[in-house]
């Protein structure tokens, strides 16, 4: 408890999992010797450690960026669990067997739990249709990718503090999950605490959606908890405290993980983005430009590198866009990497560089026994090259002659536009404005993605900007999204945004008109041109707007996230969101924000 080893008073020593190992000892001592005259002081010292660790090693939310907090300092493959195991177990013993005080309940604990929940991938058939964690950081597959038992014990300790989060974590775990580090453990106090009244609790479906986390990256989801579910992670950590996120790409910056239809379509070995001395695109799914080696750089290619997640996450349901900007190690030659996801069908990756002569490499790696997704390298049209990687002792693989992954490289000059899909039926063709995509059922997508604004007009479809999509269905239905630009149009509707507006908007044809979503950092005047006369609703309330001389409707759209509808039969309310729960003996008080257009609410127990 003194400052000679892992100090806590004059400074907060690291790394967090080391501190947890040491400061767990006073807590365990209070549990083992509750009659010791210093037992209460031992327990208090442990609690102060939890308070400090959970304050300084959990990334905060950044409302200005629309980024959620919760990311732990240490990598999620190994060291997050190495910190939580002694923390949660010791806290549970003190809570349940010492004095009844729950010392895990510190500021930041709900943020951490939310991040651990949202990091879970879509289900993988090869792992009993369980959701798992990505191979991010050192020793990424050594302990397995499924949630360890400590996550369920974490949920138990949150039951009477954040009950909805606890229920969601119960849903994602089982009472039979294996312990972290995988060593067989005899029946002990740990098992008694874990397999109590919560053992048969199957939890509550969290209905996860796309999210953006400070210092971690973007998580894109579509059709959650259905056979067509798709999960994509675009990773970028920041320059805050980081531990063992990996040497390659300075911790996996720019790496894409792709899961869909019950399969995993990208992967890396234990130390490929860990302790291994590998380059930014050498053994991982990434992109890099050729650049003179810098500090601690390995190989000739530089990924986007570390940076703040200042770009918005656009999630319009039908399509999504996530962008990470290049940091100091790759700028100014490398500008940004973005993922445009179309429903649960495919992604379009755009690696934007400053010069047409800039040499770049796009790489994609899968597990040795897994299949590659379809990869259409549209611009500059680079051909695939099999990645000739060699076994390495740093992979911690049982048989050094067996490689954990196989990969492909695509080398070329200038910005790269690449479409990736797990669906064999998808076909993509490059165009001047981006690409066209043919899908099953006669659907045809027009993807607009370029460094400079493109101006497209054809058969009542129109677009002006640098990022957007129009989805055309065989039954005449349309859906479209404008992420970067000033004009988007489909038959019957045209939407105009101010030039250089930092805003995005979507529209879909409905039986009774049109609907869509709007997102902006600041208020923007938006012009709507409709062929038919209906009522405009914003967030469930009628909004008359201003009718212009040409019949257009000018709506002053407020900042934030909003839903709009143009209908002659009223509105479809948005789902209600639970705002608070206060649990007491035999009762619970639930609070939620009223939803415009809702006539009633239904509560399920």
Keywords:
605 residues; alpha+beta; 14-stranded antiparallel sheet; six-stranded antiparallel sheet; 8 helices; 32 strands; 33% strand; globular
Question: How would you describe this structure to a colleague?
Answer:
This protein has 605 residues and is α+β, with helices and mostly antiparallel strands. Helices cover 16% and strands 33% of the residues. The chain has 8 helices and 32 strands. Helix 1 packs parallel to helix 3 (79-97) and helix 3 packs across helix 5 (149-158). The protein is globular and about 85 Å long.
| Shape verdict | globular
User: Would you report the number of β strands?
Assistant: 32
Number of helices: 8
Low-confidence sequence ranges? none
Structural class given helices, strands, pairing? alpha+beta
Q: Largest sheet at a glance?
A: 14 strands, antiparallel
**What would the average pLDDT be, to the nearest integer?**
94
Gap between N and C termini:
46 Å
Radius of gyration: 26 Å
Amount of helix: 10-25%
Q: What proportion of the residues form beta strands (DSSP E)?
A: 25-35%
Quick description:
The chain has 605 residues and is of the alpha+beta class.
SSE order and pairing:
Blueprint: H1 16-32, H2 39-56, H3 79-97, H4 109-118, H5 149-158, H6 163-172, H7 189-194, E1 211-213, E2 217-222, E3 230-235, H8 249-252, E4 256-260, E5 263-264, E6 286-290, E7 301-302, E8 314-315, E9 319-325, E10 334-342, E11 346-353, E12 359-367, E13 374-379, E14 384-386, E15 405-413, E16 416-421, E17 427-430, E18 434-438, E19 444-458, E20 461-472, E21 478-490, E22 493-496, E23 503-510, E24 513-520, E25 524-530, E26 535-538, E27 541-542, E28 546-547, E29 553-557, E30 560-567, E31 578-584, E32 587-592
């Amino acid at each position: 408890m003194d400052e000679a080893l892992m100090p806590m008073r004059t400074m907060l020593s690291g790394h967090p999992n080391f501190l947890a190992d040491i400061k767990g000892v006073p807590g365990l001592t209070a549990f083992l010797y509750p009659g010791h005259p210093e037992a209460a002081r031992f327990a208090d010292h442990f609690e102060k450690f939890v308070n400090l660790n959970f304050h300084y090693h959990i990334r905060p939310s950044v409302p200005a960026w629309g980024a959620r907090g919760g990311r732990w300092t240490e990598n999620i493959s190994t060291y997050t669990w190495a910190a939580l195991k002694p923390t949660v177990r010791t806290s549970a013993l003190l809570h349940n067997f010492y004095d009844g005080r729950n010392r895990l309940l510190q500021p930041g604990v709900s943020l951490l739990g939310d991040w651990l929940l949202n990091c879970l991938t879509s289900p993988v058939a090869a792992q009993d249709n369980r959701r798992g964690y990505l191979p991010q950081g050192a020793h990424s597959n050594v302990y397995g990718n499924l949630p360890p038992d400590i996550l369920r014990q974490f949920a138990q300790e949150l039951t009477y503090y954040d009950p909805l989060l606890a229920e969601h974590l119960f849903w994602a775990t089982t009472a039979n999950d294996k312990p972290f580090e995988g060593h067989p453990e005899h029946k002990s106090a740990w098992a008694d605490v874990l397999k109590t009244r919560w053992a048969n609790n199957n939890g509550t479906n969290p209905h996860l959606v796309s999210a953006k986390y400070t210092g971690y990256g973007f998580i894109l989801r579509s059709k959650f908890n259905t056979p067509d579910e798709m999960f994509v992670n675009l990773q970028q950590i920041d320059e805050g405290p980081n531990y063992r996120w990996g040497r390659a790409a300075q911790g996996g910056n720019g790496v894409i993980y792709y899961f869909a239809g019950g399969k995993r379509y990208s992967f890396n070995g234990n130390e490929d983005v860990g302790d291994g001395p590998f380059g930014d695109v050498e053994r991982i799914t990434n992109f890099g430009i050729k650049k003179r080696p810098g500090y601690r750089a390995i190989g000739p290619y530089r990924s986007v590198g570390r940076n703040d997640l200042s770009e918005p996450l656009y999630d319009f349901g039908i399509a999504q866009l996530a962008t990470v900007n290049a940091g100091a190690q790759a700028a100014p030659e490398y500008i940004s990497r973005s993922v445009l996801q179309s429903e649960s069908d495919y992604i379009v990756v755009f690696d934007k560089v400053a010069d047409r002569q800039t040499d770049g490499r796009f790489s994609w790696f899968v597990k040795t026994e897994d299949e590659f997704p379809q990869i259409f390298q549209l611009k500059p049209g680079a051909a695939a090259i099999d990645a000739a990687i060699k076994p390495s002792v740093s992979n911690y693989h049982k048989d050094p002659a067996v490689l954990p992954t196989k990969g492909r490289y695509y080398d070329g000059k200038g910005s790269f536009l690449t479409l990736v899909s797990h669906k064999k039926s998808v076909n993509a063709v490059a165009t001047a404005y981006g690409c066209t995509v043919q899908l099953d059922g006669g659907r045809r997508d027009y993807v607009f993605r370029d460094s400079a604004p493109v101006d497209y007009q054809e058969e009542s479809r129109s677009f002006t900007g640098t990022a957007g999509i129009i989805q055309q269905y065989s039954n005449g239905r349309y859906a479209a999204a404008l992420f970067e630009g000033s004009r988007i149009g489909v038959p019957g509707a045209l939407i105009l945004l101010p030039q250089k507006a930092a805003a995005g908007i979507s529209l879909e044809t409905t039986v009774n008109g049109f609907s869509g979503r709007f997102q902006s950092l600041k208020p923007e005047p938006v012009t709507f041109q409709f062929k038919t006369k209906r009522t405009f609703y914003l967030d469930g309330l009628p909004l008359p707007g201003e009718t212009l001389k040409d019949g257009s409707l000018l709506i002053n759209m407020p900042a934030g996230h909003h839903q709009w509808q143009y209908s002659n039969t009223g509105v479809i309310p948005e789902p209600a969101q639970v705002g608070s729960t206060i649990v007491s003996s035999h009762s619970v008080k639930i609070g939620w924000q009223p939803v415009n257009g809702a006539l009633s609410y239904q509560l399920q127990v």
